[in-house]
Amino acid sequence: MAQNLRHKIPETDTLVIYDHNQEATREFAEEVGGAAAGAGAGPQRTGIEIAENSREVAEKSEVIITVLPGPSHVKSVFGQILHPRLANLASSATSPNRLFIDCSTIDPTSSVDIANAVHSSSPARFVDAPMSGGVVGARAATLTFMLGCPWHNENANGKLVKRVTPILEMMGKKVVHMGASGAGLAGKLANNYLLAISNIATAEAMNLGIKLGLDPRQLAELINGSSGQCWSSSVNNPVRGVSPGAPAEKEFEGGFSVGLMRKDLGLAMKAARESGAELELAKRAEEVYEHVEDSEGGKDFSVVYRWLEGRNVGFNSKME
User: What was the pLDDT predicted at 40?
Assistant: First the structure.
């Protein structure tokens, strides 16, 4: 995502970055910028500057994009950013207010609380814009962003949406405005609940067909040309040799980890309890991901298929 931003923003702009993994940050600056950049060294000829903390990023930037693992991380980072109160941008008389775009997947309630804190403590705007498309989509700039915008006066005619959309389009191919603050996350949790279930179902269907003697490629071709087709079967198929570039081709390394899928499922279940929505399959799916994480922690969540293989019961039959 950051690489796509650096390539697409004006050459005269500086991309200010921070991550707790300082080694990865330096490697990114060297790889993308073409020259070394050190913490605290100031703007580089590469157009990339490494900040010492998240507060420094906010102080030096007009647009701040955050991507963090969970609610506690987002609350902690924005606590550091907002206290003490941020000074106005030096060019605020002629430039729009500071804009915070949070692409983390957290619960909508926490996101709305953070949005309110931003709007009450500084002349800035905050939007939730979680994404879908995985690591492959992030690298290829084909992500889908689900946008939640606060309904302040300046957004009455879509000005805030129009400001945010071109920024997100540098990192993705589609931006869907879902509604007010928290609506982007509501859409993301609904989507990822479906993904959690379809991933398990795809693994079970592929395992069933193979146990019944079917060729996995032919089975995948059938499913992906029929009513069972889904992202997990076509793009992220868990059987090696079916989906080129899928984590299954690399021993399930990379991709979207089991732990993150389990976290998103938990957030969806929490949102369901708060809203009174019934999720009939959620508890069993949660149990599956808990078992898979215990045995395959750190792997892409499609590794559910390998976990199922290990649970297969020996049985001989003849297909008539």
Answer: 47
The Cα–Cα gap between 320 and 303 comes to 31
- Across-strand partners of 17? 50
Question: What pLDDT, in 10s, does the model give residues 135-190?
Answer: 778 889 999 999 999 765 555 558 899 999 999 999 999 999 999 999 999 999 99
SS3 70: coil
Helix (H, G, I), strand (E, B) or coil at 15: strand
From 259, 265, 287, select the one nearest 189 (Cα to Cα).
265
Per the document, the length of the chain is: 320
pTM for the complete prediction? 0.87
Q: What does 286-301 look like in DSSP terms, one character per residue? A: HHHHHHHHHHHTTSBG
Cα 161 to Cα 57, 179, 207: the distances in Å are 23, 10, 44
- Between CA 135 and CA 121 the distance in angstroms is 34
In the chain the beta strands, taken as DSSP E runs, fall at 15-17, 48-50, 63-66, 98-102, 124-128, 131-132, 143-148, 172-179
Q: Provide the β-strand partners of residue 50.
A: 17
Catalytic pick among 60, 188, 263, 318: 188
How far does the chain reach from its first CA to its final CA, in angstroms?
52
CB-CB neighbours of 237 under 10 Å: 28
Q: Clarify whether 162 is annotated catalytic.
A: no
**pLDDT, tens digit (0-9, with 9 covering 90-100), for 213-231:** 999 999 999 999 999 999 9
Of 59 and 43, the structure prediction assigns the larger pLDDT to 59
Per 3-state DSSP, the chain is made up of helix, strand and coil in percentages (nearest 5) of: 50, 10, 35
